[in-house]
Specification:
265 residues, alpha+beta, five-stranded mixed beta sheet, 9 strands, binds adenosine-5'-diphosphate, histidine kinase
Length: 265
Amino acid sequence: IPIDIIPTGEQYSQRVGEVIVLKNITSFKELDVAKTNFIATVSHELRTPIASIQMSTEVLKHPRTGTLTEEQQQLLLGIEEDSIRLLKITSELLNVSQVETGNIKLFSQFVDPLPIVNYAINATRMEAEQKHIQIHSDIAVELPRIFVDEEKTAWVLTNFITNAIRYSPINSEIWIRVKQEGRYLQFSVQDHGKGIDSSYKNRVFDRYFQVPGSGRTGTGLGLSISKDFIENQGGKIGVESELGVGSKFFFSIPIENKTIDLYTT
Ligand code: ADP
């Protein structure tokens, strides 16, 4: 055991030895992987029954099923809202398990940006209708194709719209815009909702962070997963917001020269 003298200000103390603790963490790592796999499987399995609950509510709402009393309509609305929440949580859990293990698998290809927007609008239609929110889109013509994982990029846009709906008042408007900004293609979702206090703006992309007072309905995971998905694709993500006025969440994807390579080789 080495013994040496370590100066600490005017005093001198003696180091009389060193203790090295070695711990085999293989079992912890295995447990962690098992836990992650379990979360992924459960969240995946939950999606089918939730989808069938949503289909049943659609059938019950149909005029052919008969007229519902006011109370029955309210109950049905509650089931619909909860099933939307459950679906969001399961899809976040499914994705966070990938992100946590640093195991984001990207299946990137050259895609047209328009289907990404259409997918996100369709996926959020039911939630928007429930709050009588109009979703408008303003998409520049002749947009370049981008090299992205289409599913993950659509997931991020869907998450932005879901949040915009959640944090906006009824009868309000949401605008989805896609435009070229230099060497980037920018997707943005603007709402006229509650907005975010400037002191919290940078924190909304942190894992599990929720602005105090935003209700305990969410998980605080959606935006942090979105950040991982976009940054892993070489993109940028951000928000502009004013409390009481609204928010604009955006992400930009680089328009790569790979497009040219693909067609010339
Ligand atoms: P969740 O919505 O599940 O809580 P997110 O990661 O998607 O988690 O969002 C984190 C927090 O950011 C939310 O809890 C909310 O406080 C705030 N936030 C997100 N989107 C908006 C928005 N469009 N308007 C106002 N606040 C928002």
